[in-house]
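ENCODED BACKBONE
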Amino acid sequence: RLVAAGHIDALRAASRQRRITLRLDGAPADWLPPIDGVRLVERRRGELRLGAPHDVDPERILAAARAAGAVSEFGFGPPSLSELFLELVAR
């Protein structure tokens, strides 16, 4: 069945989810931002990949990370193609 059609950039921008990548030094090993809807996707060698609702304020996530440790990398954007696929087929 067809679940979506259109240009990939438009589909990614219209997604209900956002992807956050974060490298955080000095925080507890199980740290996650205390923000509703933000969830852990993957934790690997000091890097966190988080999922969040499209309307989450990235500044809140960054502020929470800075309060927990030293942020050496932070990225916020639409989901990857594979994440978008999983979101669309789950509907």
